[in-house]
Design a protein that fits this description.
Strand order of the largest sheet: 10-5-2-1-11
Radius of gyration: 19 Å
Oligomer: single chain
Order of helices and strands: HHHHHEEEEEHHHEEEEEE
Structural class: alpha+beta
Largest sheet: 5 strands, antiparallel
Number of strands: 11
Shape: elongated
């Protein structure tokens, strides 16, 4: 059985997800307030609960049935970075794409729960962008290829204040052309959904609780795109950002001739549409101010540990 030497917010979140409990139910189970559980999970590896709570987590795990312990082990294995590492540190589960510098996360092979019916689906290992493609990254592409710039840019260049926001006003054809130029593809719908829900099939990237504060949707009242690295507490079990809210994302999966799936919802969409299992599609020529994309690949050979180029400016912690 998997054991935990010291519980931090990372392991606490994994345990709650493995037990498939809401914040309220889990807090009652451990004997603390919902606010305390939220604080632990939000601070991740930087917080260590008191010894009395450490004992409560040890007991909860040891008394859990085998299926819960198995899910907990899988969630721990999927955590993207070890204690003390930056979220963008290279390693066995994340690395920078050689050509673009885009940070990508490894999603191991295995089953995951897919769709509204939580059907088990097997996927081979793949890698997916940690962040949606930004205006800054797309500018590199348009400069190198002469591809038309999106309509919201100031001529051929994106506004400086939007450099680390997801690129929008792109069609499916634009997104596929960019992905092909980088030697990658758009993710399939199953790949995208597994990256968002994890092996345990959580309702949202962060778990099973409805939480508008963890993403950029209509109820957030932000009214525009946000930097791709803003919502730290809304990341998936693989450390992938913005899989709920900010922008809809084009996928490789066709639904009819000339139509392709979209997932994730956007700042213009109600939270009710944000669940990664939800379905949406559009014609390949559709473009809007709330639609972007990210890339995926099945080949680890496209990575290198030492890549200086970044697709977004460093953020202050």
């Amino acid at each position: 059985m998997v054991t935990v030497t010291t519980w931090t917010g990372r392991e606490i979140r994994a345990l709650r997800q493995a037990k498939r409990m809401s914040l309220v139910t889990f807090a009652e189970h451990i004997g603390v307030s919902e606010r305390m559980v939220s604080k632990w999970e939000a601070r991740g590896a930087s917080i260590t609960p008191r010894p009395v709570n450490q004992s409560a987590f040890d007991s909860s795990l040891s008394l859990s049935p085998p299926d819960v312990r198995d899910r907990f082990a899988a969630l721990l294995a999927a955590l993207p970075a070890a204690h003390g590492e930056r979220a963008d540190s290279p390693g066995p589960d994340r690395n920078h794409h050689t050509g673009t510098g885009a940070l990508m996360a490894r999603v191991p092979e295995g089953f995951f729960l897919s769709g509204p019916g939580d059907d088990p689906v097997w996927l081979d290992e793949f890698w997916i962008d940690v962040y949606p493609v930004t205006n800054a990254a797309y500018f590199t592409f348009t400069t190198a290829t002469g591809h038309p710039a999106p309509r919201h840019w100031n001529g051929p260049e994106p506004p400086a204040e939007l450099a680390d926001h997801p690129v929008v006003w792109v069609t499916w054809d634009d997104a596929r052309t960019y992905a092909t130029w980088t030697g990658r593809t758009l993710p399939t719908a199953p790949q995208w959904e597994k990256a968002a829900r994890g092996p345990a099939g959580a309702t949202y990237p962060w778990g099973n609780t409805d939480s508008v504060g963890k993403c950029n949707v209509r109820e957030s009242a932000i009214g525009q795109t946000t930097p791709v690295h803003r919502f730290h507490s809304g990341t998936s079990p693989y450390g992938v950002y913005d899989l709920c809210g900010n922008v809809w994302e084009w996928l490789a999966s066709p639904t009819a001739p000339g139509r392709y799936e979209l997932k994730g919802s956007a700042f213009t969409s109600p939270f009710a549409r944000a669940a990664p299992s939800a379905f949406n599609d559009a014609d390949h020529t559709m473009r809007d101010d709330d639609t972007g994309f990210r890339c995926a690949t099945v080949s680890p050979d496209t990575f290198a540990n030492a890549v200086s180029a970044k697709e977004y400016p460093p953020r202050s912690e």
